[in-house]
Known about the structure:
Layout: E1 4-5, E2 8-9, E3 13-17, E4 22-26, E5 29-34, E6 39-43, H1 45-56, E7 58-61, E8 64-65, H2 73-81, E9 85-87, E10 89-90, E11 93-94, E12 99-104, E13 109-114, H3 117-123, E14 144-151, E15 154-159, E16 165-167, H4 172-186, E17 191-193, E18 196-200, E19 203-208, H5 215-223, E20 228-231, E21 235-237, E22 243-245, E23 250-253, H6 264-269, E24 272-274, E25 280-284, H7 288-291, E26 296-305, E27 316-319, H8 322-331, E28 333-334, H9 342-352, E29 356-362, H10 365-376
Parallel strand pairs: 13-14, 19-26, 26-29
Antiparallel strand pairs: 1-2, 3-7, 3-9, 4-5, 5-6, 7-8, 10-11, 12-13, 14-15, 15-16, 17-21, 17-28, 18-19, 18-20, 21-22, 23-25, 24-25, 27-29
Helix pairs in contact: 5-10, 8-9
Amino acid sequence: MPGQWGEGTIATQLLISADGNRLAWIGGQAYLFIEAQQSVCALNSEAAAAWPRFETGVVCDGVVPLVSGLCAPSVVGDLLSVGAIEPLLTEGGVAPVASTQLVNTGAARVLVCYGDAGLHDLIAAEFAHMAQSSPQSSPLPCDAYISVQRSGDKLGVALRGSPIEWASASEVVPLLKIAITDAVLDNMDDLLLHVALLHKGERAILLVGGPGAGKSTLATALGAKGFTLAGDDLATLSPDGTVRALPFPVTLKTGSWTLLKDRQVEIAAAATHLRPDDRHVRYLAVDGETALKPRAVGWIVFLDRTEGHSPGHSPSVSPVTAPETISGLIGSAWSGETALTPEEFSALAACVDGASCVRLRYCDLSMAVDLLQRFCDGAPALREPV
C-alpha cells in the first residue's frame, strides 16, 4: 500500500542507492554491483534508465515514484527487494520526505530533504542562491543527504544515518548550515580556509581573522563598494593556488545590523535566527554562481580590529612577510589531517605568490573600507606602513 514502510505508516520518503553500489554495462546489458550483498544483478532497460535518478534520490509514496514517468512501481519494488535502494534513514528511522533542495557548495552537492511543505517554506529561501536543478535526463550525483523533519513544535536536522538534533523554528536554519558544513568537511579534497572572500576583477581578496575580527561585517561593507562578495566563512584552496568561496549566506550578528548603511533594507527584511552559541544572526545571500568561480589571490588581509578608540581613528595597513602569511593561513586552514602535507604547503605557496599581504588595524568600519579600496586600487603610499 502506498505510504507503507516497515511496521508503520509514514509520509512520502526518499529512496536512494545503498552505499557502495556501482552500475556497469557489459555487452549492452546493465549490471549492478551491490557491495553490501557482494552480489551482481542484471537490470532490465527500465530499471537501468531509472537508476541514475536513484543515485540522486527519488521521492516515492511507498513504491510509487512521484517523478512522472520514471518507472513502474514494480521496478522500485524489485530494487528494494535486492537491497539496491533504501529509504533515507537517520538514527530515528525512516525520514519523511515531501520535497528536496539540491545545494551546491562547490565542494559537495548536498540534498536537503524536507519532511513537509511548511519546512520547505520556512527554510529553503535561505539557501536558494546555492540551489541547483538536477535535470531529469542527466541527474546530478549527491555527496550527502540531510533530513529536516518535524515532531510537534520541534524541528530536527540530521545527516544520513546520524542522530537527529532537535531545535526550535528560530534555531533550525543555523543547524542546517552546520550540517551542510559537516557534509563538506566529510567530502573535502582540497584545503579549506576560514576566510571571507571577495572578488575584485579577476582576482580575489582574502580577509583573515579570528572570531570578533569583523570579517563578515567588513566583507559585506566592501560588497557594497565595488567588490563582489563571494562568501564570509569558508573557501577552498586548489593545488594551483586559486580559491573558491563556499557560497553560504553571509552571517551578520546583531552588532553589525545598524553599521551596514548600504544594506539596511535587506537586513531589515531578513529573518532573525538563533545560533547554538546563543547569538542572534541574520543571513544575506551572495551570488552563488560567481562565488564558485576560481580566482587567483591578489590580496591577503589579516584583520586586527581595535577597541577603545573613538570613531574616526585612522586605520592602517602594514606589510606581512610570506612566512608570516603562510603561518597565518595555516592557522585558518582545515584539511582533515593532523599535519600540513607538502602538497598543501605548495598550494599555500602558490596562493601567496603574487599577492599583496598586509595587516589591517582598524576601528572605524567606513574608514577601513575606504583604505582597502585605495589599497586594492594600488595607491603607492599604501604599500608601506601608514
